[in-house]
Amino acid sequence: MKYILGQHFLTSRKIIKRICDYADLKRDDVVYEIGAGFGNLTVEIARRVKKVYAIEIDPKLFEILKENTEDFDNVELIHGDAVIEEIPSDCNKVMGNIPFSISSLITEKVLRKLANCEIELALFMYQKEFAERILVPPGLKSFSRISFLAQYYSHPEMLEIIPRSFFRPIPKVDAALVKFNKKEGIKWDEKLNLFVKIIFSHKKKKVINAISPYLDKWKVKEKIKSKLLEKRVFDLEFKEIEELKNLFEKEFPELFRKDEAKD
């Protein structure tokens, strides 16, 4: 058959079962599965939990998904875009095989739910490159906004690399499983998210220069007396980013009414 939207489908039953084991699925769990595809993972989840919401955007795949899950009365299918659709309020775990093009958007969306205690955990399969980016520590040039968000709001853990040979059609890169557990005592901070979006738009520059498209740098230097302004964005530690956000929020509250930063 013709494969749809350039998607790659996991064919190993052994790995599918292992994914469900990693998610520690229980009989009273309600799972939201993103990118259900043919329903291979959906069926295994459904065998273990109270209910599965399975979302798939492609209309042809959605019809196959309906056929493959018709024997399960605990599966509710959603034909829609996971970037746009709301995560059901009664689900406590989120899982899925995330396309590279929406990996950042979906991860941020789910981290918000996790930080606000609306879900317990998330477990995603990404392209290996994106999974590695999530775990990059401060000080490396590849440290990015999604690295910060993932590590600030959760405890991300790379569980295993899945070789490309287990997918059909075979992709050009390997995949990786990443599990996100909530970090206690941290709530989602929309102003922090905006600040991080702004400075990481120019992450290789010094903070003072990264902020200059939004504020006059001389006014910033006049009001904020901190050596952190001279650090490159990717070199900032988590506490330093928090400190800078608080300084800017106090001295330049207008910055947090802007949303012009690039993703």
Molecular structure report:
The structure is a single chain. By secondary structure, the protein is α/β, with parallel strands linked by helices. The chain has two domains: 174 residues, Vaccinia Virus protein VP39 (Rossmann fold, 3-Layer(aba) Sandwich); 68 residues, no CATH class. The protein contains ten helices and nine strands. The protein has a seven-stranded mixed beta sheet, sandwiched between helices. A two-stranded antiparallel sheet has the order 1-8. Strand 3, helix 3 and strand 4 form a beta-alpha-beta unit. Helix 1 packs across helix 2 and helix 4 packs parallel to helix 6.
Integer count of domains = 2
| Computed Rg | 20 Å
| Termini gap | 36 Å
Q: Which assembly state applies to the chains in this document?
A: single chain
What ranges have pLDDT less than 50 throughout 5 or more consecutive residues? 1-5
Give the SSE string.
EHEHEHEEHEHHEEEHHHH
Bulk shape: elongated
Share of β-strand residues: 15-25%
CATH architecture of the largest domain: 3-Layer(aba) Sandwich
Within the CATH hierarchy, at the fold level, what is the topology of the largest domain? Rossmann fold
Question: What percentage of residues falls in helices of 4 or more residues?
Answer: 25-40%
Give me the count of strands.
Answer: 9
CATH homologous superfamily of the largest domain, by name?
Answer: Vaccinia Virus protein VP39
What composes the largest sheet? 7 strands, mixed
